[in-house]
Amino acid sequence: MLPSIERPKKLPVVLSHSEIKQLLKTPKLLKHRLVLAMLYGCGLRCFELRNLQLKDLDFDRRMLHIRQGKGRKDRYVPLADLQIRGLKKYIAAENPSVWCFTGNDKHGNPVALSTRGVQWIVREARKHSGINKEITTHSLRHSYATHLLEMGLDIMSVKDLLGHADIQTTLTYLHVAQLGRQKPFSPLERLYNKK
C-alpha cells in the first residue's frame, strides 16, 4: 500500500502591481480607498484594520502600531507617505474620535467598521475595477507579503511585519513570489522568441 501524500495547501491569490493600483483608485470615497491602502500597504488582517484607533497612527515616525494582533501580539509596521497624506485629509474631513474607520450602529451612532463593511468595500472595489481574480481582504495581505519579498525584503523581516508566530506560515509566500537569480518563464516564451 502506498503511503498517503499530504495534499498541498492552496496557494494564496496575489494581485500584480498594476492590479493593486487599479483596485486602489477604483472607490470614489477616500475612506474606502484608505481601507484598501491600509489592508495592502500595512499587510493588515481584517480585524486589525477594524481595531485601528487614532492613537495607533504615528505620523512623525511614519509607523502604525498594531495592538493585540493575532496571538495577542503588538507590532509596528511602516506607513507610506501616500497613506499619511490620505489619512490626514480623511481625519480632517471625517473627524473620527476613537477608531480610524467607523460605521454606524442601528441607532446611527459611530462604531468601529464591521467585518462585513470591510468585506463590502473590497468586494465593490473588485467588482468595479474590472479585475477578474477572486479578491478578499486577505488577498491584499498576501499581495503585501509577496510584493515585499519580490522587492528584496528578507523573509524574517516579512515574518515580523505580518506578525506571524511561525516562519513556516511566512514561507508560503516564497512559493508565490517571483524570486531568484532568474525570473521564472514559460518555455514557449523562448521557443518562439529566440535570443
From TrEMBL:
Domain Tyr recombinase per the UniProt entry, residue ranges: 10-186
Transmembrane segments: none
UniProt keywords, alphabetically: DNA recombination, DNA-binding
Record-linked InterPro entries: DNA_brk_join_enz, Integrase-like_cat_sf, Integrase_catalytic, Tyrosine_recombinase_XerCD
Entry similarity comment: Belongs to the 'phage' integrase family.
Protein name per the record: Tyrosine-type recombinase/integrase
Organism: Christiangramia antarctica
Species lineage: Bacteria, Pseudomonadati, Bacteroidota, Flavobacteriia, Flavobacteriales
